[in-house]
Amino acid sequence: MNLLVLLAIVLLIIAGHQLLKVIELSRGLKKSKEWTVNDNDNDMMGKAMMLFMFLFFAFFFWQVNRWIDRSLPPAASVHGEKIDTLWDANMYLITFTFLLTNSFLFYFAYKYRGKKGRHVEYFPHDNRLEMLWTVVPAIVLAFVIIFGLKYWNEITEEATSQDKVTVELYAKQFDWTARYPGKDKKLGNTDYRQIGGSNSVGMDTLDAAGNDDIIVKNEFHIPVGKEIEFFMRSRDVLHSAYMPHFRAQMNCVPGMITSFKFTPTKTTAQMRKDPYVIKMMAGINKQRAKENKEPVEFDYLLLCNKICGQSHYNMQMNLIVDTQADYDAWMAKQKAFKTVASK
Q1: Residue 213: is it exposed, middle or buried by C-beta count within 10 angstroms (0-12/13-18/19+)?
Q2: pLDDT at residue 314 tops 70
Q3: How many angstroms separate the CA atoms of 301 and 248, rounded?
Q4: DSSP string over 52-109
Q5: Which of 9, 46, 89, 328 has the greatest number of C-beta atoms within 10 Å?
Q6: Any idea what DSSP says for residue 294?
């Protein structure tokens, strides 16, 4: 079998060599040199450019239609809706610019194709054109940047709501821990030197304010419609607290505390009933069935969005958005740090 494959390869090489010789001989029969480009060649290439433009745009819109349902569901936070609006505006702007510039590119390649007797004139510089393609993009980008900074300031400014919920997210390779203040509504101090055993987040055991703090693993809960204030810490390397469904992300930096806030607008149960989410999860579970895996339900996720090591891909935690009653019932079941640490 190997000998037959080798013989086939040798025959293909010989046939290719003979074909090239035929091509070389046929070129000698032409009246003009092979490198001479005539009007027919230019016309053919100009029309081919226009054909390619239509095929290129058709493929672009096909791709958009094919993959649009792979994007995230609608935002589930107040500021996330603004982020989505800004995102959509940017996408429309980019698409318009893409179509416009490429239309000119292909059309000019056709319109100004080579033709016998045609002369060209070169403009090495034109102040009006320079001003046009500098000022117009600068104005457009200024609006994009201004609104982007406005929304960024809104999510990073201090939480002011009287009934806000405070949550600390503690990151380490390759794990998340959430910490809530107890009845005193105040997070206790931390001391990295006390990390160990049941004190996985480095609670300062000398600070009485931390005795009623609540520490949870695997999943954490927040109430819908309330302002959620997050504080982030990292034990080892740079991590990033990323909650894609709320359009929220902040780096977790060793040696410092970072923060952001948002107000969730949809409970987990409500998102599971969203038509887009139902369709998305059906596609996911269809693929899981092919791999002989159990079906899964939609959940909000806390992910690490910085490549933090070998198991970075697995660093995630479920986030459950509850009604106020369900959140209060869940909190009532949690145990204070002092109770857990004393065991």
Answers
A1: buried
A2: yes
A3: 11
A4: HHHHHHHHHHHHHHHHGGGSPPSP-BHHHHHHHHHHHHHHHHHHHHHHHHHHHHHHHH
A5: 46
A6: -
Q: In Å, how far are 61, 87, 211, 245, 304 from 318, measured between CA atoms?
A: 35, 26, 25, 12, 12
Q: How far apart are CA 43 and CA 37, in angstroms?
A: 11
Domain boundaries in the chain? 40-113+128-157, 165-341
In the block, tokens 């494959």 appear at 5
User: How many whole angstroms separate alpha carbon 341 and alpha carbon 197?
Assistant: 9
Over residues 131-144, the pLDDT tens digits come to: 888 998 898 889 88
Collect all residues with Cβ–Cβ distance below 8 Å to 94 and sequence separation of at least 6. none
The string over 141-169, giving b where at least 16 C-beta atoms fall within 10 Å of a residue's C-beta and e elsewhere, is: eeeeeebeeebeeebeeebeeeeebbbbb
Whose structure tokens read 């318009």?
96
Establish whether the linkage from the previous residue to 174 is cis, with ω within 30° of 0: yes
- Report the 10 Å Cβ neighbour count for 57: 15
Contact by Cβ (8 Å): 249, 243: yes
User: Which helix (H) or strand (E) element contains residue 289?
Assistant: helix 275-290
User: If pLDDT is split at 50, 70 and 90, which confidence band does 30 have?
Assistant: low
CA-to-CA distance for 206 and 338, rounded, in angstroms? 11
CB 308 within 8 A of CB 173: yes
If pLDDT is split at 50, 70 and 90, which confidence band does 35 have? low
CATH architecture of 165-341: Sandwich (2.60)
